[in-house]
Design a protein that fits this description.
eight-stranded parallel barrel, 40% helix, globular, 14% strand
């Protein structure tokens, strides 16, 4: 590939890690096979509220096609693969008896990755809470920290001989703000939000301790969705709404996890749910900061909504992806610099990507120059941050495959690989070849 098509990577470390990311519910399918229990997302899909009434029942059928998907990763040349365990696949009731068939699936996946020379990065939780635990109060129940610790203990004992990289949670700010008590979509109570935030933080801390105690050489972090929250107008009300959302979106989890306390503006609201010693239980030693970044969020005030905000108009002079997300690579560079200055740990970018609805052309090829230009710009912005001293050590594209995109179902495609959901055939896009070329050039 001509070097003119590649981003500037001169400031990245020689041992920089290139990877791809997925999550269990979004790709695995096989939701009713081999003893898997229901997750909250299975139940939510049954409501018919997902776009086009899509479900995760089949998704990309990764459960049966994982060898093919590992083969795609090997062709890409990635050094690492970040995936998540489906909690209800290994513990159908969320706690209690383990499901051997579910554990065996991940044994096969991990072994396949290692045989291909790809390091497994295992995320314990990417939003698919067992419905059996939701029925017991879910994250609103303080016992959720104990449930999560038990689940982490199972995973550590089973896979810790082969997996050393662990993330406790993916984007806790996203599933607390937007999927709270998913079964009821209860957005009416700020007190419930604060209770959930605290319990999820306790669960994180408990899992860190379990992993440290049971996995020799474990390297542990948490994955945070971090986007600047900006007012959509010059009004004071919009500025105040953006500032408040910024605290809940960007600070409610990393601040207690990495620095030992909640942001001052929300501390009083959390205190009714705290017990002595809780902050110490949350702030456990971590090895790295996992960053997911896409684009800034533009916010307007809305008095009748939770936290007093809504999403506002984007600036007219900002380019957008086909799904309407701003393309602002400078914001990515500044976010990396902010995380470095605030937390002082190595950073791994574990999600960054471009959504569209691209389809094959008449030849069957999927040509996606927009994705290539996006990745090129954002990787160049990451390099700029590295040139300013930011300790960024890895970059994982979201995603290896087109997949189930939550409430949008299958209408949005983030993959480097096109998935025909009727046949489940995989077709690498032009961005797949571009990313493979970049990785190959970096390894010379």
């Amino acid at each position: 590939m001509p070097t003119t098509q590649l981003p500037n990577t001169a400031s990245l470390r020689p041992d920089f890690i290139w990877g791809v990311s997925t999550s269990s519910f979004q790709i695995e399918g096989a939701t009713q096979e081999d003893g898997r229990g229901l997750s909250v997302w299975d139940v939510h899909c049954q409501t018919g509220e997902i776009k086009n009434h899509d479900t995760g029942d089949v998704a990309c059928d990764h459960y049966h096609r994982y060898r093919e998907d590992v083969g795609l990763m090997k062709t890409l040349g990635v050094q690492a693969y970040r995936f998540s365990i489906a909690w209800p696949r290994v513990l159908p009731s969320g706690s209690g008896s383990a499901n051997e068939a579910g554990l065996s699936f991940y044994d096969r996946l991990i072994d396949e990755l290692l045989a291909a020379g790809i390091e497994p990065w295992l995320c314990l939780y990417h939003w698919d809470l067992p419905q059996a635990l939701e029925d017991r109060g879910g994250w609103l129940n303080r016992e959720s920290a104990t449930w999560f610790a038990g689940y982490a203990s199972l995973i550590a004992a089973r896979f810790g001989d082969r997996v050393k990289r662990f993330a406790t949670l993916n984007e806790p700010s996203m599933f607390s703000l937007f999927s709270r008590s998913l079964g009821t979509r209860d957005g009416s109570s700020e007190d419930k939000l604060h209770r959930m935030i605290h319990h999820v933080n306790l669960a994180h801390g408990a899992a860190v301790d379990v992993l440290r105690a049971n996995v020799i050489g474990a390297s542990i972090g948490c994955i945070h969705n971090r986007q600047p929250c900006r007012p959509s107008s010059a009004s004071e009300a919009d500025a105040a709404a953006a500032a408040r959302l910024d605290v809940y979106w960007n600070e409610a989890f990393p601040e207690p996890q990495y620095r030992g306390d909640y942001p001052p503006s929300m501390r009083a609201a959390i205190e009714p749910h705290m017990r002595p010693g809780d902050l110490a239980r949350i702030c456990r030693p971590l090895d790295w900061f996992g960053l997911n970044h896409y684009s800034p969020v533009y916010v307007k005030a809305r008095a009748d909504s939770l936290l007093g905000y809504d999403f506002g108009d984007k600036p007219a002079n900002v380019a957008l992806t086909p799904i309407g997300w701003p393309i602002e690579p400078d914001a990515f560079s500044r976010t990396l610099q902010d995380v470095h200055a605030r937390y002082g740990l190595p950073i791994y970018v574990l999600e960054n990507g471009y959504g569209d609805s691209g389809q094959p052309d008449q030849t069957g090829a999927v040509i996606d120059p927009g994705r290539i230009e996006f990745l090129k710009a954002y990787i160049s912005a990451m390099n700029e941050a590295a040139s300013k001293g930011v300790d960024v050590r890895g970059y994982f594209v979201w995603s290896l495959l087109d997949n189930f995109e939550w409430d949008s179902g299958y209408s949005i495609r983030f993959g480097l690989t096109y998935v025909d959901y009727a046949s489940l055939q995989r077709t690498p896009k032009s961005s797949f070849g571009w990313y493979a070329g970049l990785i190959k050039a970096m390894q010379r």
